[in-house]
Amino acid sequence: MKLVEATEKDIPLIQDLARRSWENAYAEILSNEQMEYMLSEMYSEAEIGGHLQHPDYHYYLIRDENNGSFEGFIGYQHHYEGSSTKLHRIYLVPESKGKGFGKGALEFLHQKVSESGDGRIILNVNKHNAARNFYESQGYRVYDEGTFDIGNGFVMDDYLMEFLIHN
């Protein structure tokens, strides 16, 4: 596995990977209308392009070194709040799950966060998303929950999770 820093030219690939992942991960959690709304808002060219221009926001593509295919991506922002890095996005295409890519991406993130000087990683996970179990298996814990209005009559009902970096 190799993580490759994404650039503007990778936006269509990120959009494709997000759609393929979301159609699997959220099929039984979100309505088609909410999924389409969120994908169009959160993964528009302007939105991702703006993230890529921000000095503390990073996207990395997850590549399988055995066959060169892109299996997913991770997007995070250092110093999001105080000395916390926010893991905004980590998605794998369905056929790559269970192969260690997610664990490897989190290990990569832990190293990058440690290098940044932040001491904590925070993330939101949908209350009905099995990914919560994965995060817990990697040492993350739920510290709160929240319901967030994302517009167009939709909300995100999430657990807030954290991981403490031991520098």
UniProtKB/TrEMBL annotation:
InterPro entries in UniProt: Acyl_CoA_acyltransferase, GNAT_dom
SUPFAM superfamilies: Acyl-CoA N-acyltransferases (Nat)
Domain of life where this protein originates: Bacteria
Domain N-acetyltransferase: from-to ranges: 1-166
Protein name per UniProt: GNAT family N-acetyltransferase
Organism annotation: Chryseobacterium endalhagicum
